[in-house]
Specification:
Jelly Rolls; 10-stranded antiparallel sheet; 21% strand
Amino acid sequence: MKISTWLASFSALLLWVNTLRAQLPPVFDSSRMATVQTTATVRRYLSPEKITWQTPNADGASISNAARFLLPGNGQADLANQNMCVLKSSVTAHPAILFDFGKELHGGLQLVTGMYKSGKPIKLRVRFGESVSEAMSDIEPSKNATNDHAVRDMVVEVPWLGKLEVGNTGFRFVRIDLLDDKAELQLKEVRAIFVYRDLPYLGSFKCSDELLNKIWLTGAYTVHLNMQDYLWDGIKRDRLVWIGDMHPETSTISAVFGYNEVVPRSLDLARDITPIPQYMNGMVSYSMWWVLIQRDWYQHTGNSAYLQQQASYLKGLLGHLCKKIDTNNSEDLNDGTRFLDWPSSENKPGIHAGLQAMMIMTLKAGADLSKVLKDEATARQCEAAIARLKRNVPDANGSKQAAALLALADLVPAEKINREMLSAGGVKDYSTFYGYYMLQAKAKAGDYQGGLNDIRTYWGAMLKLGATTFWEDFNMDWLPGAARIDTLVQPGQKDIHGDYGAYCYKGLRHSLCHGWASGPTPWLTEHVLGISVVAPGCRVIRVAPHLGDLRFAEGTFPTPYGVVKVKHTRLANGKIQSTIKAPAQVKIIRE
């Protein structure tokens, strides 16, 4: 599908959503949906968009009328028994069908059966997949397909003239196999059960580059899927609250949805299960990310009551961190796992440099919050520790992750970091998590055009491979000869999902919907639309657009008082003309 066609369809759907307040995620045609409300989420039932594959030589003898699954359903078995798909097996041949639901989603599968001759339950194998390759795979070691975190490969029995709902995972594709020998199964419907929070997209982004528009939306949708009972990192694997991973995710939530209770709910869970001096998720950096998220969340929401609830834990954590500095003014965080992200995890000097920078960033955020809480003693303690840490500037040792943090912590000039490291080799050594901080460091260096180029190249490559959400990891070296994730891998092609990955995401275990990869969404809002929060609660917002090679950019930004609307247009003389509308309670500073 052309990007222009995709965006036109999306625009029409978003208008419908906002008008009727149905508030669907901006990806699905409502004519294929029915809705059931639960406490935090809704369940929508979706018919497949297409049948990608079925058993070879299925000439009607083993599979007939499979196209009926593409029609809207109602989830109800009935006595009319009309227009059924019939699957027939022999002792040696067992029919199977692979469905494509069009977009990555979270949930399960609904199967509605008819009146077949045996009148008994029939066994099916159901396989969910984030790619065609995963849905077609077995659980075996060669490509590392697993049932970790969520069971995605199972054998079930469907009832005669009834309905079965199975599954709770992240997927786009589903394969069903008829397992019983000499069996006949009549199926009326096979529908995805889409489970998500029913939220309006208050933030928006549109510019003269349709690829960037799609990237912004894809990042927003990736995080939206992970906003379940808690804020997860992945909807197939890593259905956990990883606090470090949450920072790009909460930045995206602030830019797209504004306040949502899933953020404090998840922050509080991590706090409550991690007594000091333990580190959140066992990683020294993740407790620091908790402080940084608290600072950013307070800036956006202005919720002093919630911040006050963190006062005791915050004071204890900051006091602990201030003690973790050795006589050489170096971070001494050796009592937990030393970690930035997986691609940098073997670069110990790089990790040290990154943690040194993170200590400064964290203690600065901690000092700011302590002053709000009128805890001047802790604020002074943090400031004294920062002064010590700034006397020691470690080398990044070739790590773009560490380099970005050194720039953001003002340990090394951002222009030098960008020129000598971040721009070297383009997006080589980018990662989906720390790519956000690499982009932020480029913006700090004033290289907004470089940031746009890197977003197009790196995140755009995932879209060209068929992605509808952004991935746990991605490497440009994987591209040559790779098949798209929405097609069968042909001889001579690489399986982009099954053949790559490392550490905890080898092969098909790799998550193709990971919230930490959403960095371009808040980055485009902050730096292209130019919207940044200056005073807590969005009472003061600075608007300083950087269009780079774009002709125009416009969008909205949610605040506690309503949305801020901006539109920037490049005039013939090269100057930028801006139109800004904001709620009366929000002061706008133009730059």
